[in-house]
Each structure stands twice: as C-alpha cells, then as structure tokens.
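User: Show me an example of a complex going from sequences to structure tokens.

Assistant: Sure. Here are the input components:
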Amino acid sequence: AQTVTQSQPEMSVQEAETVTLSCTYDTSESNYYLFWYKQPPSRQMILVIRQEAYKQQNATENRFSVNFQKAAKSFSLKISDSQLGDTAMYFCAFMKHSRSGNQFYFGTGTSLTVIP
Amino acid sequence: DTGVSQDPRHKITKRGQNVTFRCDPISEHNRLYWYRQTLGQGPEFLTYFQNEAQLEKSRLLSDRFSAERPKGSFSTLEIQRTEQGDSAMYLCASSVREQGARSNEKLFFGSGTQLSVL
C-alpha cells in the first residue's frame, strides 16, 4: 500500500520569506510521480508542481521548487518570496500506474499562513 | 469557464434522504475521478472512470453510493439513505494522459460539493 505523510499540520511564514513543507511517502513502486497541490479557501485544488521519480533533477516552477530525495522517499516543497496569496492548505500526492488507470494518494495536508 | 465544474456547491440534507451531485469535467478529458475529503484530511479516492467505463471503485464506496458517466462526459454521484458520516466535501477531478508518457497525468479539480447530513 502507498502512504503519504505530511508531519506539519500547520505552518506560518512572513511575507517575502522562504518556507519548506515536508512530505514523505512509502511505496515499493519504482516508477511514480509526486505532486504538490494547493487548496485555498475557495476550496479548488490547484496543481503547484510535479516531479517524475525517474528524474533526478528537482522540479522548479517560478517561486516553487522541490527537494526530491528518492532513497529517503522524501519530497519537500520550498516556497520562496512567500506571498499572501500562498496562504492555503498544501497537499502532497503520490501517483502510481495501475492496469486500470493511475492511482493518486494524498497526504493529510499542511495549512500554510503567510503573515503580512 | 473551461475548468471542472461541480453542482451544487453546498447540499444540506436530512439523514435517510438521497442526494445526487454532478460533475462536468474539462471537455477533452477522458478520465474522471471522484474523491471525498473530510475536515483535516486529504482527498480519499472513491471511484474512477475512463470515458463511460467505471474502472475502479474504492472500498470506501459502499453499496449506498453509485456513480455514473453515461456518455463519457459529465458524471453523477448518488448517495442513497444518507448517514451523518457521509458529511464531507465531494471532489471531482478530470485528466487526460499526456502524449508520449506511459503514466504521466495531471488532475484538475472542481471546487467540490460540501455535503452536510443532519
């Protein structure tokens, strides 16, 4: 079974500062994808960043980057130059391929508050 | 608006009543997922369609739950004889497998339907 663990229920960061959200996962799969999704108060889940497990290079999307440590099964999200609009729940997700389709598994989320 | 849309956004019902939710995916997406999210938790997989075929169902999906996607476009999720434990947000997501990648896929979510069972 796949599990995704986010050990930080809540975090806060000063505007313009940098924050790192942690995520670990457990799997026996060798080929999979990892995602960070953001859920603002509007409730709509928005994809922030994606990482293919077979790529060693860490994914980057503007102010968002990941630190992917495959051996340690760790996938942290770094948000640089935090903005007020970054305030949201952040979910780490794992995707594995199955014969009938792809299975996504989500962590319990980290609530991030950006303080003005 | 070309995103995933869900209707209604909120539903309050009495225990024992039936409810039905609708999801309209992004038009070119052939895959559609239903998830349930309770307070303080991440989304939990309920079921998955590829076109009109329901390919996978979670053990969370009891026999009171049924989902359909009759023409491979919109989908409905019905809960019969609702119970207080069904109170949750029900999320729909759609996707399409990216060209050239065996497994690559990105989920696009709707805003969810918040169900409260009194």
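The lines above are the inputs; the final block is the predicted structure for all two components together. The CA atoms of residues 36 and 90 of chain B lie 5 Å apart.
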